[in-house]
Amino acid sequence: MAAIETFALEKTYLAGFWRNQPKTALKPLTLTVPEGEVFGYLGPNGAGKTTTLKLLMGLIFPSGGSATILGFDWRDPRVKAHIGFLPEQPYFYDYLTAGELLDYYAQLSGVPVRQRRRRIDAVLERVGLPGVRELQLRKFSKGMLQRLGIAQAIIHDPRLLFLDEPMSGLDPVGRRQVRDLIQSLKDEGKTVFFSTHILSDAEALCDRVAVLHQGELRGLGVVQDLLARFSGKVELICDAAAAAGALTALGGQCHATGETIRAVLPQSQLDPAIDAVRRARGRIVSVTPLRASLEDYFLEKLTEVPAEVSR
Amino acid sequence: MLNRIAAISYNTFREAVRDRVLYNLIFFALLLVGSSLLVGQISIGIERIVLVNLGLTAVSLFGIVIAIFIGIGLVSKEIDKRTLYTVLARPVRRWEFILGKFFGLVGTLVVNTFFMAVGFFTALLFLVHRFERSDVSLLAALYFIVLQFVIVTALALLFSSFSSPLLSAVFAFALFIIGTFAEDLRAFAALAHGVSGAIATAAAWLVPNFAALNVISSVAHSQPVPGALIAYNTAYALLYAAAAVAAAGLIFEHRNLK
Q1: Cystine design at B84: which of A274, B78, B175, B230 (Cβ 3.0–4.6 Å)?
Q2: What does pTM read for this prediction?
Q3: Which domain holds residue A285?
Q4: Radius of gyration of chain A from Cα atoms?
């Protein structure tokens, strides 16, 4: 069963004083995310990622199209018992303690009262916040609030998670912990749909990614396949400081450390580059073809002319 | 369903209780009730009338202020702060959220009125040294004040579901003021003709009739409150509040959250 299916889901706002200027936030989006997948929803700021998430969560209403979540119509309130949502830069009731907040959300999600205390302690431990149960949220740091946001998303053990920028506000240790958490959720068979503009996180975690730009789906692919593509560039490492100028003239990006140069060149310039190193009486240390990164794919999709994207 | 509404109600009550502004308002209300003892000294022979008038008016006014200032932010604050996102991401229907907010604030006001009533009756006991049989009508007056709070809360919630806090406060206060003169408005409507008559009649029946819920003057003069009036006012307040809350639910059901 598909965890998420959208059918030409779109959103247009009416802007202007007389509300007669249509502004498209999301063009018709048709997408399928199977269960058990970690799906990365990528795009620059303003691409429409949060709009998509808010449509799927029923916080805003679409101008057209529809969606199903775990086989339910996306507007069916029953589906919410099986999904967890972390909004971007979450705000919580700062007059509550962490324990009170999670208890409130657990109650709203239908967690039986006798299970709540144990679950709250387990979830706080899991997100790296042990011992803060009695601490009022107004005393939480930004990173702590972000982790608490993840805690409230998983308190009722949902099958599907929507995370909007889950790494936002976290230090490197926190980001690593959240990455490990998302990986562990995947190992439990949960589906994770998360939006981010931090490509390294998506590269490390996602099975598939989609690229959104100006409200339009520009690319969709399996991460492993995307990374296996050849980038068309090679890395040349040599002991020939005198050849740096020639390598740069061939279109290479050079970085020198003492006598050693690391140059990244187009594949077509490899032979002339090797000749330049020989003329400088240098020594070739290594020649390595460079694989594409997710960043390369992302930037490629942002700049190319939109075409029909295979689902 | 009931579990979710109860959870939202309790959370709303908890938020109000932990808001320090509420305690300041209760303190000033009790101060006013206490000061009515001093004011009563000025008018020999009518100390009780002054105390009852001033005391119950203080309970009413401060309660209205609390109902409006908390009520106008019930929905709009949750939207602006985006705390609503994580609530509506749960299996919570939008109308359940509205109902929970309504019951939470009404519960807060009932508890608040109880404490202010304790202060009021303490002041009265200090003045008259013992209660009379006729003092039961004071309870009816307090009950009518609570019914006023129910209507004002429903109205503040209605405005909060589509308007900014500032405009909601203006609308709610305006309706409260007009509602206290509802009887005069109805009398004017009866005399007016044509289009203005139709408009006046519609307005007279649409605005909440707070005048009928104000028996402070009559209980101050130890007049009893008829049972029929209690029944009529209860039905009126509950129906009016239900209509306002239903309208709030309907508006909120179709609202795009920012």
Answers
A1: B78
A2: 0.85
A3: 232-290
A4: 24
